[in-house]
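wait is this the right file?? whatever heres the structure
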């Protein structure tokens, strides 16, 4: 993850004291958590983002709008509105290209680009979705947080290992009033940004805190799973 200086200051609040804010007149900053409006760097397992073109209605907005920005998983899990998000998000995962009503209900309708995944597991804590065009899975907790998995993660789960976040570079703009970040460790920096997890502490590759029921299902699923192969590869 790469952090850079911000063009303007953003307010910081301690993680445990986050509150849901009313966004009736403000234009949301996509780099902030869309629930508590504090900085939200994309740390797999602790924070992720939803793109506006997915056309997921924003239950935390003061007026009809589509969600576009990041979410602290701790805020999401504690929110009373997470069932609404869970229903919208999991529908988007299953949907392909489909028409969605505009925000004010007037024509023409909008076109949603869903992920076209299929649900392969539903438990008391989560649901698991699988792509039909690539070796990708999504585990979504019923409280809202979601986890992206690849073929290597499925192999790790089958072998009893904890999957780690991918070793990727994710740019993020830091608030100007954060102070001297040069002397901070990663954990100190994340804490200063208000990103606090209840599971394993993040490192440069963070452990993915999957529900036990998802791990058990995926471990068995991996034994019979056939990797996606395209027709041109079969005849190569």
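ok assuming it is, sequence goes like this
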């Amino acid at each position: 993850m790469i952090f850079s200086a911000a063009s303007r200051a953003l307010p910081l609040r301690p993680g445990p004291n986050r509150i849901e804010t009313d966004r009736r007149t403000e234009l949301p900053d996509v780099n902030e958590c869309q629930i508590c409006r504090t900085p939200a760097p994309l740390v797999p397992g602790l924070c992720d983002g939803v793109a506006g073109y997915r056309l997921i209605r924003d239950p935390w907005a003061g007026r009809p709008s589509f969600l576009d920005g990041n979410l602290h998983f701790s805020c999401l899990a504690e929110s009373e509105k997470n069932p609404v998000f869970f229903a919208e998000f999991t529908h988007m995962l299953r949907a392909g290209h489909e028409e969605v009503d505009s925000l004010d209900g007037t024509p023409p309708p909008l076109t949603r680009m869903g992920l076209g995944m299929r649900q392969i597991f539903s438990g008391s804590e989560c649901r698991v979705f699988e792509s039909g065009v690539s070796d990708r899975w999504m585990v979504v907790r019923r409280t809202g947080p979601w986890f992206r998995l690849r073929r290597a993660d499925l192999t790790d789960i089958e072998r009893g290992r904890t999957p780690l976040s991918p070793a990727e570079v994710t740019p993020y703009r830091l608030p100007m009033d954060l102070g001297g970040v040069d002397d901070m460790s990663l954990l100190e920096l994340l804490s200063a940004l208000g990103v606090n997890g209840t599971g394993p502490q993040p490192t440069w590759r963070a452990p993915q805190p999957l529900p036990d029921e998802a791990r058990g299902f995926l471990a068995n699923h991996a034994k019979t799973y056939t990797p996606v192969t395209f027709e041109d590869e079969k005849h190569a």
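The chain has one domain: 2-234. so i think its the right one actually
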